[in-house]
Design a protein that fits this description.
The complex is a heterodimer of chains A (about 230) and B (about 210).
Chain A (H helix, E strand, L loop, with lengths): L1 H24 L3 H43 L4 H16 L4 E11 L10 H4 L3 H13 L4 E4 L2 E2 L6 E4 L2 E4 L2 E3 L3 E6 L2 H9 L5 H10 L2 E11 L12 E2 L1
Antiparallel strand pairs in A: 1-7, 1-8, 2-3, 2-7, 4-5, 5-6
Chain B lengths: L1 H17 L9 H37 L5 H14 L5 E11 L4 H13 L4 E4 L2 E3 L5 E3 L5 E3 L2 E2 L4 E6 L2 H9 L4 H8 L4 E12 L8
Antiparallel strand pairs in B: 1-7, 1-8, 2-3, 2-7, 4-5, 5-6
Classes of the chains: A alpha+beta (about 230), B alpha+beta (about 210).
Chain lengths: ~230, ~210
């Protein structure tokens, strides 16, 4: 009876002890004060980026229409347009769909993850490693959460937020890969590839799954920024 | 026992918060960096929008004036040849020298950082890096780019804004600083180059 009477206060005390411990780890009052306007500014810039990309897509479509019209008249115009179409395909500026593989990368949801949070969450290097394995396996097109990977693409972390192509992304990450399924699956199954990710999956429950799929990869929607390099 | 249970209950819910990736959990310093990166990227897109508007206008004027739009098409081809890594490329940029132990993942991280700093074309030794290039290790542990060996000492050349790329790599806490800690016996060096010549891709694109 006496033990039962102590149960509730002890439980409450346990929760309070933990809350106090976590409060000491929380950011300072000043940091919390500035977080909201900064968060809103970042979200606003991302929304602005989405709008700018839509404008860019419209203008590219306008130029495409002009090019198609010139091509319809034959001769040099048609040859140049054929060349442009091939270069867009090569550079990632045209959508692709077809057989390939889908890779899922996600933070661990397992209770074991609390033992080592850093090993249980996705990092930008995981994305670059997966994309590297995709190209190694003969991929023809790759996108991460609908961000097409091109020759100027980068993935990096700021804090615990990941940016790909300068766009804010958050897990789960769906990596869509168009390419030869057999070779791609062999590349991802190769024990020498993605050892770190596979170990973290096995030990900490990091979400990592590779499966055959029919995938659709959008065209690259960001800026081309070719200012200093010239083709020879 | 109940005390421990209370701590465990609170910790469980705390752990679930740790996996939340909403921006609200970022520090002000990280948020400031994110804002700067987003603003820079948006600025680049705005510049291209402005450029494309002008090009559409000029092309339409040329067509209306009976001159056709070949000039615009040729301009697109020139731009896309660089973007798609077709043919050799030239321009100003930086060279990064890596003299000592290194591996394929570190090389991939270095290329990722150069791209993040706006590199428009990259080569590792005499091997051009393209949109679908991959980095690996041969059986003898030599680094390969698209299957082609790139023996150490590595020289990674990147065409782009020299000051931007060099600053990105050499700033305190930047990529070269991190690599120097991981590979303490390896020497890293950078130089700005006014006229780099990068070879064409040799591996056919799948």
């Amino acid at each position: 009876m006496r033990a039962a009477a102590l149960l509730v206060p002890a439980l409450v005390l346990g929760v309070l002890v933990s809350a106090q411990w976590r409060a000491q780890q929380d950011r300072s009052e000043i940091a919390v004060r500035y977080s909201t306007p900064l968060t809103e500014a970042a979200s606003s810039l991302q929304r602005e980026q989405d709008g700018l990309k839509a404008q860019l897509a419209e203008l590219r479509a306008s130029l495409d229409a002009i090019g198609a019209s010139a091509a319809s008249q034959g001769g040099a115009g048609r040859e140049l347009q054929t060349r442009i179409d091939a270069l867009k395909e090569r550079g990632g500026l045209a959508p692709r769909s077809g057989a390939g593989v889908a890779v899922l990368l996600d933070d661990s949801r397992s209770p074991v993850a609390a033992k080592d949070v850093d090993k249980s969450i996705c990092h930008a290097t995981d994305i670059t490693d997966i994309v590297n394995t995709a190209w190694r396996g003969g991929a023809q097109a790759v996108a991460v959460n609908d961000e097409r990977i091109v020759g100027t693409s980068s993935a990096y972390c700021v804090g615990s937020t990941i940016m790909v192509n300068g766009t804010l992304l958050s897990p789960p990450f769906q990596v869509a890969i168009v390419g030869p399924q057999g070779a791609l699956l062999a590349a991802f199954d190769d024990p020498s590839q993605l050892r770190d990710i596979k170990q973290r999956r096995d030990v900490f429950g990091l979400g990592f799954r590779v499966s055959r799929a029919e995938v659709r990869v959008p065209a690259y929607s960001g800026a081309l920024t070719v200012k200093r390099a010239a083709a020879r | 026992m109940a005390l421990v249970l209370g701590v465990l209950v609170a910790t469980h819910f705390g752990s679930q918060e740790a996996f939340s990736r909403s921006l609200q959990l970022e520090t002000p310093a990280s948020l400031t960096t994110l804002i700067a990166n987003l603003a820079e990227k948006n600025g680049a897109i705005r510049e291209e929008i402005f450029d494309l508007r002008l090009r559409v206008e000029l092309a339409q004027e040329a067509i209306a004036g009976g001159r056709g739009s070949l000039a615009e098409a040729e301009r697109q081809v020139a731009q896309l040849r660089v973007f798609a890594a077709e043919g050799a490329a030239s321009g100003p940029g930086i060279a990064v020298r890596v003299d000592g132990a290194f591996d394929d993942r570190a090389l991939g991280d270095l290329v990722n950082e150069l791209r993040n700093a706006g590199a428009e074309a990259i080569a590792v030794n005499d091997v051009r890096v393209g949109p679908r290039s991959w980095f690996g290790l041969a059986a003898d542990r030599t680094i390969v780019v698209d299957g082609a060996p790139v023996p150490l000492t590595l020289t990674v050349r990147a065409i782009g804004a020299p000051e931007v790329m060099e600053t990105a790599l050499t700033r305190t806490g930047g990529m070269l600083g991190q690599l120097a800690l991981i590979y303490p016996r390896t020497r890293f060096g950078t130089s700005r180059e006014s006229a780099l010549e990068l070879p064409a891709l040799t591996r056919p694109m799948p």
